[in-house]
Structure formats: C-alpha cells, structure tokens
Design a protein that fits this description.
Number of domains: 1
Helix content: over 70%
Strand order of the largest sheet: 1-2
Distance between the termini: 56 Å
Largest sheet: 2 strands, antiparallel
Structural class: mainly alpha
Shape: globular
Oligomer: single chain
CATH architecture: Orthogonal Bundle
Number of strands: 2
C-alpha cells in the first residue's frame, strides 16, 4: 500500500510539470494555431539562469524574477521571428522547423556558455520529506501540481473577467472575426507566447530542486508536455492539466511495477492509443472550418 502511494505522490509531482508545460502549448495554440517546439527550453532557461544568478550573489526572489523575465523575452522574440512570418499561411509548417532549430541552437549555446553541469536548485521544499501513510514525499513535489491547478483556475478567471483575456478567447475562437471587430490579433498572439514562456520558466524553477538542472533538461520535458497537451486536448486547459497529472502517475507506476526502461514506450504508446480513439484528445473539442 505504501509503495503504491509513493508512486502516486511522485507521479503527481512530475505530472504537474508536464501539466504546466502543456498549459503553455494550449495558450500558444489557442491564439496562433502554432506552438513553440523550443518551449521545453524555457524550462531550461528558468532553472539554469536562476542557479547562475544565485552564483553571482543575487537573492533568490530576484533571481527567480530575472529568470522568468528572460524566458518571457525569449518567447516574445521567438513569436516575432519564428511564428509571425508564417501566420498568414495556414498550411505552412515553417514555424515548426524554425522553433525546433532555435531550440537546438539555444541548447547548444547554454552548453557552451554554462557547461554541461547538472545541479539542483536549492529549495527548502526538498530539505526533508514528509511521511503520508508510510510514503515519503517532498513538499516541493506536492507544490508543483498545486501550482498547475491554481494556474488553470487563474487563467480561466483572467480570460472571463479581463478585456485582454476576452480578446484571447475571441482570437482562439476565430482569428479573422476577432480582427474584424478591432482586436489586434498579432498583439494577442505575442502576449500569449510571452505568458506561455513565463509558465515554462516557472515550471523549470519548480522542478529544478527535484531533478538536476542542466542545459539539456528541457528537451524530454518539452516533448512530453506536448504529448500531454495532445492527449488532454490542446484546446482545453483543464483537460491538459488532468492529462498531465495522469501521465505522470502512470509513468511512476510503470517505473515501479515494470521498469524504467519501459516508461517511455508505455507513455508514448498511450499517446497513440488515445489519439486513435479520441482524435481531438480526451477533453478537446472538434474545430470546424467552413469552406
């Protein structure tokens, strides 16, 4: 019983990270019908830069804010140079290729600049585990899924109660119609990429105390976050969070009861099965296009 609970609690922690990454993909797709395939590298920026700033004597709160700020700038610049040039061409996959290329270049630059180090980010949340019915878990691991759920709630409130949030919903529903009624679609798209990058940087900072922060940490997390977004339905923010938590839990049970070698095979096989049964994802809605 304690072993199963251990896997469940650990799965919530890593699943929360997948959920935070998937929320970013949801925000980007809703506004631009395109995503940043270098989104995983915003996690790396958040984690690695926070450690670098701490090494230079900057206080933790300011280091976190600076790291998230850099991630936001990265998202804004990437939207401008890698997404917007292809926004008017619905069939273009240029954004896909350019964002992948930028991600590879950023990862290479981080490796050259900061080295191939792997270090945990100091946090009081990993000083001592708490025991729940015989299962040990760090507070940091429980904080991550809580933050993911909180962000979805706040995002929903923001989209319903603020003018900018309602503009985001309008652009997500129909970009052309939103532009006709006076919404600056390009500005909304830029803001969406900035918001997604901020969440990516935050996710990296949250996970760095649990796993090792490194220049390559964002690659697999980004891929899994995108897979989770597809499973949950990339048009549904609550759906991608639920899918992220479930994906993390399943991974940990596979680790515990089968083997770590089978983890990726089972996880990505699950993506294929879900898409065969639910092409829009578990909670996604079918997008109709009039021709």
């Amino acid at each position: 019983m304690s072993a199963a609970l251990q896997y469940f609690l650990a799965g919530l922690g890593i699943g929360g990270i997948y959920a935070l990454v998937a929320i970013g993909f949801h925000i980007m797709w809703s506004s631009a019908k395109a995503v940043n395939f270098a989104h995983g590298d915003t996690l790396m920026l958040g984690a690695v830069l926070t450690i670098v700033f701490l090494d230079h004597g900057i206080a933790m709160p300011l280091a976190i804010l600076l790291s998230i700020g850099v991630a936001i700038v990265f998202g804004v610049v990437l939207e401008r140079v890698a997404i917007r040039p292809f926004a008017d061409h619905a069939a273009s996959i240029g954004w896909m290729l350019t964002t992948i290329a930028i991600g590879i270049m950023l990862e290479s630059y981080a490796t050259i600049e900061f080295g191939a180090f792997a270090r945990p980010l100091p946090s009081p949340g990993v000083d001592k585990p708490i025991i729940i019915f015989g299962a040990g878990v760090f507070i940091q691991e429980l904080l991550i899924p809580f933050v993911a759920v909180l962000i979805v709630v706040l995002l929903g409130i923001f989209q319903r109660r603020t003018q900018l949030g309602r503009a985001m919903r309008a652009v997500a529903f129909n970009r052309v119609a939103a532009g006709i009624v006076g919404i600056n679609v390009l500005h909304v798209s830029m803001f969406s990429f900035a918001l997604a990058s901020a969440l990516g940087g935050l996710a990296g900072i949250l996970v760095a105390p649990v796993i090792q922060a490194s220049a390559t940490m964002g690659l697999l997390l980004g891929i899994k976050g995108f897979a989770v977004a597809i499973i949950g339905g990339i048009t549904s923010a609550p759906g991608v969070v639920i899918a992220g938590l479930l994906y993390g839990i399943i991974e940990k049970f596979v680790d515990g009861y089968i083997s770590t070698a089978a983890r990726e095979a089972v996880g990505f096989s699950l993506v294929i099965v879900v898409l065969m049964l639910f092409p829009q994802g578990l909670f996604g809605r079918r997008e109709l296009v009039k021709v």
